[in-house]
Amino acid sequence: MAAFLLRRLANYAVLVVLAASLAYLLAAAALTPRANYEGRAPRPPEAVVDAQLTRFNLNDRTPLAERYGTWVAGLARGDFGRTWQGEPVNAELWRRLGVSLRLLVLGAVLGSALGVLAGAYAAVRRGRTADLLVTFLSYLVLAVPVFVLAVLLQIVASRTNQATGLRVFEWVGETTPGASDGPFGALGGLGDRVRHLLLPTATIALAQFALYSRYQRSMMLDVLQADFVRTARAKGLRRRDALLRHGLRTALIPMTTYFAYTSGLLLLGGMFTEKLFGWHGVGEWLIDSVTRGDVNAVAAVNCVAAAAVLLAGMASDVMYGVLDPRVRTGAVA
Amino acid sequence: MRAPGRTRAVAAAILLLATVLVSGGCGTAGGGATAAAGRLPASDVNPLPRDRVGNGGTLHWPLPEFPSQWNFNHVNGTRGVVEHVIQGALPYLMRADEKAMPHPVPAYLRAATLERTEHGQTVTYELNPKAKWSDGTPLGYADFVAQAHALSGRDPRFQVSTVTGYKQISRIERGTRGNVVIVTFDGTYADWRSLFSPLYPAAAYSSPAAFNTGWLDRLPLTAGPFKLQGIDQTAKTVTMVRDPAWWGAPAKLDRIVYRTLDGSAMPGAFANDEIDLMDIGLDPGALRRAEQVPGAAVRRAGGPDWRHFTFNAAGPILSDPNVRRAVMLGIDRRAIARSDLSGLGVPLQTLGNHFYVNTQDGYQDNSGELGGYDPARAESLLEQAGWRSHGKYRAKGGRVLALRFVVPSGVPGGKQEGELTRALLERVGVRVDIQLVPDDDVFDRYVTPGRFDIVPFSWLGTSFPVSPMKSVFARPHGDRIQQNYSRAGTAAIDAAMDRAVAEVDPARAYALVNAADRLIWHEAYVLPLYQRPQIVAARADLANLGAGGFAEPAYEDIGFTGRRRDR
User: Taking the CA atoms of chain A, what radius of gyration do you get in angstroms?
Assistant: First the structure.
């Protein structure tokens, strides 16, 4: 199995380099940071603008190959360069990755776990009320775009806050500035964080729930009729055990691939949630950087996204090994 | 997107494309107040004397983006969001009132007097002797020298955003008393009141390195009612607190917390009391949400920006001034304003000036005949120009009278303007072909190269409109059109603008600007539509802040009248 993973890793490394290079070249060719200065009146002195752009390797009058060379040289030292405002991209990237993870992890885990369970349950109860209910709910959520869902939740939350007179829900940002300075100290800060998490977590979890419950339901339906489940029951296992140990486990295997790849993309897909709830994560940064023509930031986010997707691929390979005995024994042999 | 209160000159006339944010589809369905009667006030900020404003509280102020360069005169720092923060912490020697007239701020400047000399002008600044930086050094001569040198453009290592005005400074001297600074200019500079606002400490401008990087993510020295408490890079917030060392009337608020928020998050945050004011822009949807919030007030005033149509006078059809005049007469500006501003509860007023907006000192409607809607006159002008009716549209020499109306596709308001123009001009036999183009391409690929006949957009106005607007109306030199996308102009207009820029007496300057404006109206290459309203939702008990028009707020007077807010 180790050899298999190493081979995979080598493949992935090549892919990451390719993806990152393409991302940089595309961003550098398509985006024009110079436009940030051009619309102004009085227009800043030309020499100043050129000097500024050259300094951050953003000058479109430098040949693309040369800019790419500079960028690669920086990247080899682990340096993604500077934003058009002159800030180091690395620091901002780590900061924003942290924000995105804190925003997404809880919602994603909750949503996918509940989704898988609900999907499996619906499959077992196929055609009955529970199944219909889960199906209806998930289609409803799937049909509503994230930004509408978020606004609906906000409206409900605002009604709740007004009705109760308490500030149960907060929706902009991770924290209220100065929350930890209150009478409850760090504990108050934690409570504040939790209240800020409620709405975005619900938004993300609902969206994930809807998606996973659909997938899991159809996977499970395939498995329910399979021979090995019948065999398990014939051996004397109760229906519940047969379904959980043999059915669900088998049905989860194809899901791992799906989990892995969507979690890589979830990071970027969080952009709507981030914008609507005022969290300053990676997704928001990508959109803003594209509109500002901030080449180095766009390239860095794309680079990380490529790495994340491929890491997720690795994780899924490992998960396969754990869940599917055939992979393990195959590798040993 | 612009937040309330910002008006200073230098950020000036940036092209504003994404302006009319009429949410598609529900623009007119909302009903309610469509247009109020009367005229827009110059400012609407709930003005209250200091003794009626409560002490204490925290103001939560949203910023549309998070700046990292806090040196306003650096090429990356000249932005409205930066001003929102530093106006409370750095010296502004002059502050514009709601009609754009600058006045000395007594906490920093007791008086400034101008004297004409043989070769130019001399300004004597008498500073407030109590004014000092947070490190204890008094404001004065050294700061003036450093700023004038850094912004003169003589040392290219200073990455300045503009050298206007400062490059004309030839000498700075100490007065007889310590708090007097005498600045001598080469030639006259009418907008001298815009200089040294903000004023930075000498240390910040003494070397290119300090200038370019010393204010990145930092405000090392301040001299205002507020000082910096902290910048949170993760949450993207800036917290300012009352500065006990401030020598003026103490700030009413304990704290101002600036939070960076995307426009889409603002209505929700405002409804949930997480921000205390919000710029509505021209979005009736956001306005309706804000109006439903208990304890909120919507403040409306005339803003500095104005909407207009630019005509391409180098195009095959509009190169004839009479055709341009006919097209202007065939466009009902009130109908377009009514459509753009529907659902916002603002009075309808068209704009009759290319330099000043309706609420500005010096404003005068110079549109004359061209400002009205007169299809009959438009038709007779077209007849005279040789465009005769052939069926539905006019034609001349086998060419149909058809105009390209270029609209950025991401701006729904622009499309509505195009469709209205098409319907209106069809009545006089002019065909309008609306060309939807990607937002980013509008200027690069259509307007700057001249591939259009009519394009709608907004100019950002300023308290000192003549020098920035010169680049819009001055005759182009070959390919160097600056921002004169019409590619029109006359020697008389250039001369009139030069005279206006050189005039230092306000009353005479107004007359000269209006003379230039009349010439521009006569050439008919830019059709002003209306002054954009400034619509700001705020807590009803927030005093001395809101839709300020041109006025720049005195930060120490901002406060709440209601219960104390500690949140």
Answer: 24
Which of B75, B233, B265 lies nearest to residue A276, judging by beta carbons? B265
Question: The tokens of B295 are what?
Answer: 């304890």
Cβ contacts of B64 on chain A, cutoff 8 Å: none
Q: Select from B69, B483, B567 the Cβ nearest to the Cβ of A41.
A: B483
The kind and range of the H/E element at B226 are strand B226-232
- DSSP 8-state assignment for residue A44: P
Q: Rounded CA gap, B151 and B148, in Å?
A: 5
Interface test with B, best of A40, A87, A95, A199 (most B CBs within 10 A): A40
Read off the pLDDT of each residue in A239-256 and give the average, rounded to a whole number: 81
Alpha carbon distance A299, A28 (integer Å): 8
The percent helix, strand, coil of chain A (3-state, each to 5) is: 80, 0, 20
Chain A window 224-263: which residues touch B at a Cβ cutoff of 8 Å? none
Q: Residue A193: which pLDDT band, with cuts at 50, 70 and 90? A: confident
Tell me if the domain spanning A2-44+93-328 has CATH number 3.40.50.300.
no
Q: What is the ipTM of this complex?
A: 0.85
pLDDT at A1: 64
Q: Are strands B255-260 and B431-437 parallel, antiparallel or unpaired?
A: unpaired
Distance CA B10, CA B94 (A): 13
What are the chain A neighbours of B265 within 8 Å (beta carbons)?
171-172, 275-278
Closest CA to B557 of B545, B540, B548: B545
Which residues in chain B are closer than 8 Å to A178, comparing Cβ atoms?
A: 239, 257
How far, in Å, are B152, B161, B500 from residue B166 at the CA level? Answer: 5, 12, 19
A-chain residue closest to B159, CA distance: A48
Q: What is residue A316's predicted lDDT score, i.e. its pLDDT?
A: 80
Q: Burial-class residue A182 by CB neighbours within 10 Å (0-12, 13-18, 19+).
A: middle
Judged by a CB distance cut-off of 8 A, whether residue A222 touches chain B is no
Q: Which residues on chain B are in Cβ contact (under 8 Å) with A176?
A: 274, 567
C-alpha distances out from residue A199 to A171, A188, B531, Å: 7, 18, 39
User: Which of A49, A147, A178 lies at the smallest CB-CB distance from B75?
Assistant: A49
pLDDT tier at B560 (50, 70, 90 boundaries)? very high
Q: Which of A40, A47, A158 sits opposite B272 (nearest CB)?
A: A158
> B237 with B258: CB under 8 angstroms?
yes
Give the per-residue pLDDT at A125. Answer: 86
Single out the residue of B370, B61, B247 nearest to residue A177, CA to CA. B61
**Looking at chain B from residue 74 to 103, which residues have their Cβ under 8 Å from any Cβ of chain A?**
75-76, 78
This prediction's pTM: 0.87
Please tell me the distance from the alpha carbon of residue B207 to that of residue B212, in angstroms, as a whole number: 9
Torsion sign (Cα): B28, B5, B361, B486:
negative
Q: How far is B146 from chain A (nearest CA, A)?
A: 19
CB B185 within 8 A of CB B125: no
Of B479, B445, B473, the C-alpha closest to B459 is: B473
Provide the residue ranges of all domains of chain A, joining segments of one domain with +.
2-44+93-328
User: 3-class DSSP state for residue A229?
Assistant: helix
Distance CA B384, CA B323 (A): 9
The reply to whether A45 touches chain B by the CB within 8 Å rule is yes
Asked if B67 lies within 8 A of A158 by C-beta distance, the reply is no
Question: B364 is written with which tokens?
Answer: 């005068």
CB contact under 8 A, B14 and A41: yes
Structure tokens at B204: 């910040």
